[in-house]
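The instructor's notes for this session suggest beginning with a concrete chain rather than abstract definitions. Hand out the sequence below and ask the class to guess, before any prediction is shown, which regions might be ordered.
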Amino acid sequence: MSTSTPKSPITPLFGMPRALAAITLGLGSFMVVTDFTIANVSVPTISGDLSVSPDEGEWLITSYAIASAICIPLTGWLSRRFGQVRLFIASVTAFTIASILCGLAPSLDALLAFRVLQGAVSGPIVPLSQALLVAVFPAERQALAVAMWAMTNMAGPVAGPLLGGWITDQFTWPWIFLINVPVGIFVVASTFFLLRHRDSPTVKLPVDMIGFLLVAVAIGCLQVTLDRGRILDWFSSPLICVTAAMAGLGLIFLVVWELGDAHPIVDLRLFTHRNFAVGSMAVAVGFGLYLASIVMIPLWLQTDMDYNATWAGWVTAPIGVFGILLAPFLGRWVRTVDARLFASLAFVAMALVAWWRSTMTTEVDAGVIAMACLAQGVGIGFFLTPLVSLSFVGLPPDKVASASGLQNAIRMMSGSLTTSVAQTFWDQRARFHQTHLVETLTPSNENTTTMVTVMRKSGLTEDQVWAVIARQLEVQAHMLSLNDFFIFSTFAVTAGLAIIWFAHAPRKAS
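After discussion, reveal the predicted structure:
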């Protein structure tokens, strides 16, 4: 093993260069996180244009998520081998090229191949943007850097469906990928200009090929299980049974191998740091429920409340307002006040909003939905920055990139798992409620007979009357099921609040 030192290590920037670096690195992270959800609302359009079924089109989301989830944990090893700046520039360059290829893809097979490439090269971008932001800010301003990074990561999943819906409605679907090109070019050029003579030291490490293969099998199979399980009815599908078994065995072998390897490709020893373990667990709980909610609400608005994709995006957009407003201040506050207090405030706010949403009915208007999203934004604004700061207290500087990559992988896997389970829960509970609602449609039910009489007098035929009733039963069943989900979320977020206080206080830990 040998070490090569670049011209100058990464040192803090000041003035305009630091402001430009913050914008540049934040944009790089935002671009990648947005791509996790930007194609979600466009799948039906893409499937129709490419003459494939919507189920086949869903692989656009799955393929990106699998490739990204496999490569995110490799960030620590890759950055030690090639340097953080060089790896960041190379990853953004490759991501931009992959985006062009996605936009020009002539068929689904080509588009899936380019989405795999796009997801794979995106893996290091988010954790490296965090590590580089921390590096270019002086010690007394690093909490602000984390706050800015957190803001882009929490706003991205909200902006994705909004941008995807608007671009698809106003232009054509290739532009949901081509929009990355000017952003990517700016990020590459700006990063090269600002940091070309600065980089982290590199170490020629042996390649942990067995570890890499185990990561690919374990995380790849787990991601397929999570993303396709709901569509294929979970364990009634032989494919899901096989991928779930391979994921479980792969994870077991991965843990055993990586703990015994001298140069693991995923540093699981980071979990021996109490704050990192506790912080990662709290991030997984909070982000998983957050991502599930911002997927479920637009889905409910479009399937049951007759919103189009653009308006569903606009109604949920206020969730990012407080994150933007709080970012400049939260960094300073976290340095002077126990980060656990801010994280607790985030979980309390999210629990209260979840409870509020559990009381809503189909009569709720767009203003109330937007206000609930705005209120949830208070919790989101206080969520990621304190937990990330708390997680990294006491970690050696050379472990930050590895820790960031591992925690980001945990966060995104939790988001995929919780979202898939939440959608399954929503479907199953809706069927449960629909069954019980149907039981009330009897001749002895005065409301039923009155409603049928009124609709017949309005000119509807017998079949039309019962079609309207069936549709209303479906809408009400989905509403009740969504309420059940938010009741569960209330208690789960409250449990996450308890997890936070197992971490050491920041000053004691440092």
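Then share the key points. The radius of gyration is 24 Å. DSSP finds 23 helices and two strands in the chain.
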